[in-house]
Amino acid sequence: MKLLFIFFLLFTIALTDGIPLGPTPVMPTESSNITVISALSMPYPEEIAVDPTQTFYLTGTANGYVYKVMLDTNEITTLLTPKDFNPEHFELWTDEEVAAYCTGAQNETYILEPICGRVLGIKFYTNAKKVYIVNSYFGIWEYKFKNHGRSRFNNIFEQTGVFLNDVYRIREKLYYTNSHTTVQRYSVINVVLDPNPVGQGSFNVFDMNTQEHTTLIDGLFFANGITLSSDKRFFYISETDAARVVKYEIATGETSYLVEDLPVLTDNIYLEKSEACEIREDSNERCDNDGTLLVPGYYRVEGLDEVLRNFSAMAEFLTQDFYTVVVPTFSSWIEPVGTICEVDEATGEILKVIFSNDFKFLLAASAHKLSDNEYITGSVFYPMVFRFQVNE
Ligand SMILES: *[C@@H]1O[C@H](CO)[C@@H](O)[C@H](O)[C@H]1NC(C)=O
Ligand SMILES: *[C@@H]1O[C@H](CO)[C@@H](O)[C@H](O)[C@H]1NC(C)=O
Ligand SMILES: *[C@@H]1O[C@H](CO)[C@@H](O)[C@H](O)[C@H]1NC(C)=O
């Protein structure tokens, strides 16, 4: 009887509790002193990867392309197109036809996402000789840069019917996140506002030798960006809906939180290693965990926070007309302000919040630090890449 009662109680709590999102923290309101270096028009960039020569590569969520941008000249070239990811469909199309079909107003192209694909995570490996690219619809791909002749591009694995998001390679293992395991990206509002008391996202590993997939953590509330700790013992995984960063110990599978209740709903994360730590992913060297985690994300607006904390409110909200109520309300929740948190890797302490409500940078799905106080950000909700300096 007693056991039954406890079971009932737990069950009730699980069903009425919202996403594990704490009370809204003190939110930044005053803009940091920012000097814009450049603002490039780009198609809703999701993740940015910067190579050792300071060239950056970015994935465009408005059209399914991957671009390469030279930082010194801002010259933009196309690295990959939807034709590369979905050759069966586009085999007989010209590049112009593909571009005309896949590039357009964002709401139109949502419908085309399963055909044109959407490229999200992008990560270099082995000193930028290879890059791993996540196409949310067509799986994970490897692009190998060659000094002579053609570069090689091939599919590592396909995964359909899920919302694949980010990737990180160590040796023969590819770690990746599924933001949702049964819903695809075009239905992103339903992923953010999923009235399911158990998170539907997961953190997984694919063994390239055995070709086996293993789920390492499930029940995540919108699993998003991944990065590796400086000592290579942990992964940090961004959990967007819960505004926190999960810390996963590779050897034991132990899961804890590096930082909870951030002032942003987190997106991609990036580790700025300490100066002493210049080691490659494929070497055996390790550093101390004395880096700084860059955590860009979406400013926590009161209305959205309330709905995320309350599953019945979320369920109620989703029964309203999708195009006249749900979509516009959801859009109004995405405050067009830029927010990046810097988190101490060793302690999880928030060291700094870079904030802009003066249009110096707008929203941020990914952020890289290029040098002292110099940053580059991209956003799935705003078609620009901003490069700027923060004045102390
Ligand atoms: C912002 O930083 C610049 C450059 O350091 C400085 O000249 C300017 O006075 C600062 N503005 C404010 C409002 O602090
Ligand atoms: C959760 O939402 C429901 C439905 O809108 C509402 O009746 C209830 O008061 C809310 N609970 C809390 C704790 O805000
Ligand atoms: C874009 O979305 C709006 C609002 O849902 C809809 O009315 C409109 O028809 C859509 N535009 C196109 C071109 O599909």
TrEMBL record:
SUPFAM superfamilies linked: Calcium-dependent phosphotriesterase
UniProt-listed Gene3D superfamilies: TolB, C-terminal domain
Domain named Strictosidine synthase conserved region: residues: 170-250
Signal peptide stretch: 1-18
UniProt entry keywords in alphabetical sequence: Glycoprotein, Phosphoprotein, Signal
Tagged with keyword Signal: yes
Pfam families: Str_synth
Keyword Signal set for record: yes
Superkingdom field: Eukaryota
PANTHER family the record matches: ADIPOCYTE PLASMA MEMBRANE-ASSOCIATED PROTEIN HEMOMUCIN-RELATED, STRICTOSIDINE SYNTHASE-RELATED
Family that this chain belongs to: Belongs to the strictosidine synthase family.
Protein name per the record: Strictosidine synthase conserved region domain-containing protein
